[in-house]
Design brief:
By secondary structure, the protein is mainly beta. The chain has a single domain, classed as Methanol Dehydrogenase, Chain A (8 Propeller). The chain is about 5% helix and about 25% strand. A hairpin with a 5-residue loop joins β33 and β34. This is Pyrroloquinoline quinone-dependent dehydrogenase.
């Protein structure tokens, strides 16, 4: 049974009201940063003394997924098996050659073909992938920390990157970092892409490398979610860059350094760097940036990029590209608007502009040779009338790309003609899904969405393994003939709550509540997928940060439990006619002058949407004026456990306390669990513990997987908007979280990576 926020008794209700944030993303008041436990390191060249090459021992833990076929024939998009022809992008059902464009490939210096499947390191003593193991389950098989002893956890080391905002970048930091652990070292990045290796046991820095990213490259926020680790097949252990760390940067480069020394890999691109602006067009800093690590499949590093939302229809391309992880040479490109172009565009031309991009984390399937891309929507987000047929087809879809050819094998769309910014933000997770007849499992992919639906798809074909219905969508809006008449709805599970009512509107004073109720009555609202309007505001619920976002879900594969945290926050939006937008001087990023404001507003807050007849205003989190109090009653965020086999809710509870929240930005320091917005994900362990920070209360917490009860928590020196990891070193289990804070979530910014463990005997 789903649990909602309880207000039992007038006294409890009053206490909760008085402790709600002045902003749904956290109080404006900030905790004082804790005193540094380690001096911030200076930006220096790699140390002469470096750790030994991480061992290449045989992987342990979950077995690599086996390639499997669906049990029954289903209908859907044209499907090609890896290595076979696939339907061309933008041409449903069309035939396409599995060959690449020879001229373009030669011009781009195409790499060798994808390699054979390699044995993958597994999660356990290591955390070798952004999602833990190759299946991205964020499940650790370690069980040293249990519900019986988790209360004894203590802080054992703190590492500080030294990367903090200055006067120019104040209000623009949102690091969101998840480190990797391989052998005895952790590999991590800072908000501005400074790479570092630290000792997994002590937190002592081994080396650091600063790629010198310019401040003007920051889009909405300075964000580096993590790095990728790659071992060159058959390379001698003492060879330079035999094991390498690869990251994407805010100024759109792929950077590769030696995992032992931090020195740039001379054999990768131009002395360790590949320029991703090639083929994109005129360089406009901050418009095109990479915030997620590449997914490496059969030796091909696959990357997309974040294209800053809401600027112009003529935005940089959302092209997906694969690069040889050893040489950095372009292996292939997938331009969904021009599928015949499979390499670099001819000189003077660009990849198709304005197409859907992939800003989040892809998932690699080494066995099938596929990479699963969660795509966003087209530029611009809230107007669809000028989009091409190809954009309508591929936007807000999970696309499986055959890494041998760079061509789509299948795709599954979660929103038709998306005008709500419901792009796919979560990394997809590879699972073995129980068959209906109880006879075995099917290799599957679990896909969460921002609107809350969770889908289970066949990994090889993309066909749903649990029914997906098409439900009637609301009518009206400024483009009634363009919007889709139906929208997909998962028959498996949804994180979404019931539709809002006027009774859900509230505030800390009667005036706040009255304002919100009047605004609710005036707004256009017909449930989820309410069409955008310009003559009045419309309510988008959940908002674009709703449901499951980039933190993704964790899956306990031993016990068959999905752990999903979510946001339950509406947005209050209005399309702005072009004349009004011009009067407000709303300009896209490529037309702004030096010194113009940028990077501090939420996405959609006065975005120009140049080329469309409307700009857009989004009141993210829908706050009342003056007080900034949210119009929706709490909870504004939660965490739930779901039975993997059935999709049924096991428990559901608010996530986040009122300790940092209070009227007018004054922290109450009260421990009431009210459910705050959250950003970041969780890890679940065989010991039966869920570790998560994410909420705006600056706490890292341990939750009992069986009951949902908080068993332990600790106050972080800055916001914990990041995914934690769990690993083992010298027989001791460690928990590590980045406390970097987040400008959009309004939590205090820091440069900390913090490790916890049980006391040593």
């Amino acid at each position: 049974m789903t649990r909602r926020f309880s207000r039992t008794g007038r006294a409890t209700a009053l206490a909760t009201i008085l402790t709600l944030a002045a902003s749904p993303y956290g109080a404006l008041a900030q905790d004082a940063p804790a005193a540094p436990e380690q001096a911030a390191p200076a930006a220096t060249a790699p140390d002469a003394a470096t750790p030994e090459q991480p061992d290449a021992a045989a992987p342990t833990g979950d077995a690599a997924p086996a390639a499997g076929q669906p049990d029954g024939a289903t209908t859907g998009d044209p499907v090609a098996q890896p290595g076979e022809p696939a339907a061309q992008a933008g041409q449903p059902g069309g035939e396409a050659s599995g060959e690449t464009n020879g001229d373009a490939a030669e011009a781009s210096g195409t790499a060798l073909a994808a390699r054979s499947p390699a044995t993958q390191r597994q999660v356990g003593s290591n955390w070798p992938f952004w999602g833990g193991g190759p299946n991205a389950t964020r499940f650790s098989p370690l069980d040293q920390i249990t519900p019986d002893n988790v209360s004894e956890l203590e802080k054992v080391w703190t590492y500080r990157t030294g990367d903090m905002p200055d006067e120019k970048t104040e209000g623009k930091y949102s690091p969101e970092g998840t480190p990797l652990k391989v052998g005895g070292s952790l590999y991590l990045c800072s908000a501005m892409n400074v790479l570092a290796s630290v000792d997994a046991r002590t937190g002592k820095e081994n080396w650091r490398y600063d790629p010198k990213v310019s401040d003007d490259a920051i889009p909405y926020g300075a964000t580096c979610r993590g790095v990728a680790y790659y071992e060159v097949p058959d390379a001698p252990a003492d060879q330079a860059c035999a094991a390498r760390i690869i990251e994407g940067t805010l100024d759109a480069r792929l950077v590769a350094v030696d995992a032992r020394t931090g020195e740039p890999c001379a054999d990768f691109g131009d002395n360790g760097s590949v320029d991703l602006w090639q083929g994109i067009g005129d360089k406009v800093p901050g418009w095109y940036a990479v915030t997620a690590p590449p997914a490496i499949v059969r030796g091909i590093a696959v990357t997309g990029a974040q294209v800053k939302d809401g600027q112009a229809e003529d935005a940089p391309s959302g092209v997906i590209r694969g690069y040889d992880a050893v040489t950095g040479k372009l292996a292939w490109a997938w331009d969904l608007g021009n599928p015949e172009l499979t390499g670099a565009p001819p000189e003077g031309e660009t990849y198709t502009r304005g197409t859907p991009n992939m800003w989040t984390q892809a998932t690699a399937d080494e066995e099938l040779g596929l990479v699963y891309l969660p795509l966003g929507n087209s530029s611009v987000d809230y107007y669809a009338g000028n989009r091409s047929d190809a954009e309508h087809q591929w936007a807000s879809s999970l696309v499986a790309i055959d890494v041998a050819t760079g061509k789509p094998a299948w795709h599954f769309q979660t929103v038709h003609r998306d005008v709500w910014d419901y792009d796919l933000g979560s990394q997809a997770t590879l699972i073995d899904f129980p068959n209906k007849d109880g006879d075995g499992t099917t290799p599957a992919i679990l896909l969460p969405s921002k609107q809350g639906d969770i889908y289970i798809l066949d990994r090889a074909t993309g066909e749903p393994l649990v029914p997906v219905d098409e439900v009637e969508a609301p009518k009206g809006g400024v483009e009634p003939d363009v919007y889709s008449k139906t929208q997909p709805k998962s028959g498996y599970h949804t994180l979404a709550k019931r539709d809002l009512t006027e009774a859900d509107m509230w505030g800390i004073t009667p005036l706040d509540q009255l304002f919100c109720r009047i605004a609710f009555r005036k707004a256009s609202y017909d449930g989820i997928y309410t069409p955008p309007t310009t003559d009045r505001h419309w309510i988008e619920y959940p908002g674009y940060n709703g449901g499951s976002d980039w933190g993704s879900v964790a899956v306990d594969t031993d016990n068959g439990v999905i752990v999903a945290n979510y946001n339950d926050v509406p947005n209050h939006n209005r399309l702005i006619p072009r004349k009004e937008a011009d009067e407000r001087n709303l300009k896209p990023i490529n037309e702004k002058q030096p010194g113009d404001e940028g990077g501090t507003k939420a996405e959609g807050a006065g975005d120009p949407q140049a080329g469309a007849p409307y700009a857009i205003d989004v009141n993210a989190g829908w706050r009342a004026p003056v007080t900034g109090i949210p119009c929706k009653q709490p909870p504004l965020g939660g965490i739930t456990a779901i039975d993997l086999a059935t999709g049924k809710t096991l428990w559901d509870r608010p996530l986040g306390t009122a300790r940092r929240n209070g009227p007018w930005g004054i922290p109450s320091f009260l421990p009431f669990s009210i459910g705050t917005p959250n950003n970041g994900g969780s890890v679940v362990t065989k010991g039966g513990i869920i570790f998560i920070a994410a909420a705006t209360d600056n706490l890292i917490r341990a939750i009992d997987e069986k009951t949902g009860e908080t068993l332990w928590s600790d106050v972080l020196p800055a916001g914990g908007q990041a995914n934690p990891i769990v690993y083992e070193e010298d027989g001791r289990e460690y928990l590590v979280i980045q406390a970097g804070g987040h400008h959009f979530m309004e939590t205090p910014v820091g440069d900390y990576y913090i490790a916890y463990a049980l006391p040593e005997d």
